[in-house]
Design goal:
Blueprint lengths: L8 H12 L4 H10 L11 H13 L3 E9 L2 E9 L1 H16 L7 H6 L7 H28 L9 H25 L7 H10 L6
Antiparallel strand pairs: 1-2
Helix pairs in contact: 1-4, 6-7
């Protein structure tokens, strides 16, 4: 099957939520937060959720179930997943699980440009990062400990985040240790020679 629209974490999550029951956008956003999925799905801006819903609706992956009218709330449109949406969600999920994707996160990009900073500046910045990573680890540990008796498969993303965060924290601490003990050193002359020795790959 060739899906008519591209996948995204938020689009996949919207389709997954609608597998359980029809929902209006506010209900989707609330469930994502209540279930702790906002650690892996960005729903900070409701506008992005509405854009995603419009895209799925235009592609025929979801449909309007009804419009709720209540004197206490603005009019709310309730959506449901279509058969095409169910199939698309399965296809996206299987592809994402099985195929590693080259992504371009900000941290490695910053690491690739460290030569703009002094060792002291790098050390200070990485110390701050290590402190924040350690705090995130504590939050994840608390979250996992507080998980009720649910199937493990329902909280695997929390396990993954903890594993990845722990690995990053260990690596950052190892770099800091190398900086402190003089195992990671460089000079301005060395950097200049390195830069001048690099040939343009297009030449």
């Amino acid at each position: 099957m060739s899906t008519p629209t591209r996948s995204s974490p938020l689009a996949l999550t919207v389709l997954a939520l609608l597998h359980y029951r029809p929902l209006h956008p506010y209900g989707m956003q609330r469930l994502i937060k209540d279930w702790g999925k906002d650690r892996v799905i960005n729903v900070g801006q409701r506008a992005s959720l509405y854009r995603t819903i419009d895209r799925l609706l235009g592609a025929g992956l979801i449909d309007v179930r009804e419009t709720e009218r209540d004197q206490q709330y603005p009019e709310r449109t309730v959506y449901e997943v279509t058969d095409a949406g169910r199939e698309a969600a399965r296809e996206w999920l299987l592809e994402t699980l099985g195929m590693p994707k080259q992504e371009f996160p900000e941290f490695p990009a910053a690491l690739s440009n460290l030569l703009l900073l002094s060792p002291a500046e790098i050390g200070d910045a990485l110390e701050r990062r290590a402190d924040l990573l350690a705090a995130t680890m504590s939050e994840l540990d608390a979250s996992l400990a507080a998980v009720p008796a649910i199937p493990r498969v329902a909280s695997l993303e929390e396990e993954y985040l903890r594993a990845v965060t722990g690995a990053e924290l260990d690596w950052v601490r190892s770099v800091l240790d190398d900086l402190r003990h003089g195992r990671l050193v460089w000079t301005a002359d060395e950097l200049k020679a390195f830069a001048e020795g690099q040939k343009n790959p297009r030449e």
